[in-house]
Amino acid sequence: MAEGKQKRYARVPLSTLRIVPLDAMTLIYHRASGQTHVVASPVPELIEILDETPGDVATLLARLAERFDLGDPDPEALTARLDELADVGLVIRA
Fold first, then answer.
1. What is the reported pLDDT for 82?
2. pTM value?
3. Are the C-beta atoms of residues 89 and 51 closer than 8 Å to each other?
4. In Å, what is the CA distance from 40 to each residue of 22, 28, 37, 54?
5. What gap in Å lies between CA 93 and CA 8, rounded to an integer?
6. Among 37, 46, 36, 31, CA closest to 83
7. How far is CA 13 from CA 40, 46, 48, in A?
8. CA gap 55, 93 in Å, rounded
């Protein structure tokens, strides 16, 4: 990645996901891979605030702060979580 260039992330199209909340856990079926992911907070919230328009971590933290009391937001932790979601195909690195 070029210096000064921020990573950007977007959600995969919702038509490729089936999201089913189950108490404290959420099942996310990813149609493209055929995998079902069992996730907990904050993954469903991250999927919810993402849209198909890429955004950098600062933009995504601002969206999260509008909806949730973040306390002390950690950009590095958000980046790590988004990279994990990208690795399993639920998020796109742009």
1. 94
2. 0.83
3. no
4. 10, 10, 10, 23
5. 6
6. 46
7. 20, 14, 12
8. 10
pLDDT in tens, 36-93: 999 998 899 888 888 767 889 999 888 888 888 777 788 999 999 999 999 999 999 9
CB 73 within 8 A of CB 57: no
pLDDT for res 40? 94
What gap in Å lies between CA 49 and CA 40, rounded to an integer? 15
Report the residue count for the chain.
94
Torsion angles phi and psi, residue 39, rounded to 5: -130, 160
Q: What is the pLDDT of residue 65?
A: 83
